[in-house]
Amino acid sequence: MNIDISSKHINRLAIPALISGISEPILSLTDAAIIGNIPINTAESIAAVGIVGTFLSMLIWIFGQTRSAISSIISQYLGANKINEVKNLPAQAILIITSLSLLIIVGTYPFTNSIFKLYNASGLILEYCSEYYKIRVFGFPFTLFTIAVFGTFRGLQNTFHPMIIAVVGALTNIVLDIVLVYGVEGFIAPMHIKGAAYASVVAQLLMALLSAYFILKKTDVPLMVKLPFNKEIKNFSLMVLNLFVRTLALNITLYFATRFATAYGKNYIAAYTIAINLWFFGAFVIDGYASAGNILSGKLFGAKQYSDLIKLSNTLIKYGIGLGIVLAILGGILYYPIGRLFTQETAVLDEFYSVFWIVLAMQPLCALAFIFDGVFKGLGKMKILRNLLLASTFLVFVPTLFLLDNYNLKLHAVFIALTIWIIARGIPLIIKFRKLFLPLTQKQ
């Protein structure tokens, strides 16, 4: 099988994946921007959105790893011309993951205050966290359903339909945010932070419905669960388990970052919320090319085309670094307007502007880490990703953060530690990839 790894084909996969990938951070950025312009308790509102957003991102990333596992298996079977053997796998995976999401709702809803106290939230911030989370959490099953369908599309080398779904969801969220947060005089009373939560849930529900529609209409993959379980369900479960542990480590990083920022005070956590959501935005932009790496590496690996796999990685490195530099330059040009988009509070903006340059400088480094994350997920090498993230979190990020915090660097400590963490994630993956596949190319 001749697998196309031309720049044109990579971009055909990456650009729609890029657009669909930024839908999730756009939901959080929209909430932060619209809530940040409410003239009442602005810093507390932004802080609450940031804290809840961090916790929900943790849940989504942990349980959303089904996307990478499904994509890896399907793309490898596609490359090996055996796709019919795994057509019933996505429905089984969706059933498992959505069932777990319902348990998460039951397990977290009664303990909302206790959860966010762990993030140092208190007073009005804690009250807002509780209000926001108790609504947004009901969108969790819809999000996981959509993520699993996206993984199926990716495995089938299709990033176009996920893009359509994501764009519709993001636009719906923006419109509903404006309507429900600010209200419509004579029709809808302003709902403030609760309105933002309802807007997100409705957008997530719509995306799930569209996902079901497109997977049934545009593919021959069924959503009806049929037993017995597919022979790859064990491999799928092991992949998800390794990614689960890996993502726990990732979210321990975000937990400590958020906890430290919250402890510094409301202006610091508000500034951190803006900066970290912009960091997420950049990450998901770069994730478009990580997705292309995920999709094509799995197919090439399944077809045992190792020389093309090396060529693909070289092309992705160039695109990733270039895209990271472009993001950094654009952020530099729009440095001050970006901050004012989210809030007009001078104290919050001062703290944001003092660290935003670190977020921008990180982008090319993030590109390398995220792209090779995607490649290794496509290869199904989840154990390597698990071990590396455990090491970079507990041996690099946590000690660095505590050390820099000891010097009272505050948000600088958080974002410098994140930068070093990214380097510790990215460089070893590139080295490992070369060691694995360069010898195999010599045998072909």
UniProtKB/TrEMBL annotation:
Membrane topology label: Multi-pass membrane protein
Main location: membrane
Keywords from the UniProt entry: Antiport, Cell membrane, Ion transport, Membrane, Transmembrane, Transmembrane helix, Transport
Keyword Cytoplasm: no
Residue ranges crossing the lipid bilayer per the database entry: 46-64, 93-112, 132-151, 163-184, 196-216, 236-257, 269-296, 316-336, 356-376, 388-405, 411-431
InterPro entries named in the record: DinF-like, MATE_fam, MATE_MdtK, MdtK-like
Family: Belongs to the multi antimicrobial extrusion (MATE) (TC 2.A.66.1) family.
Name recorded for this polypeptide: Multidrug-efflux transporter
Organism: Meridianimaribacter flavus
Protein's cellular compartments: Cell membrane
Cross-referenced CDD domains: MATE_DinF_like
A Pfam family assignment: MatE
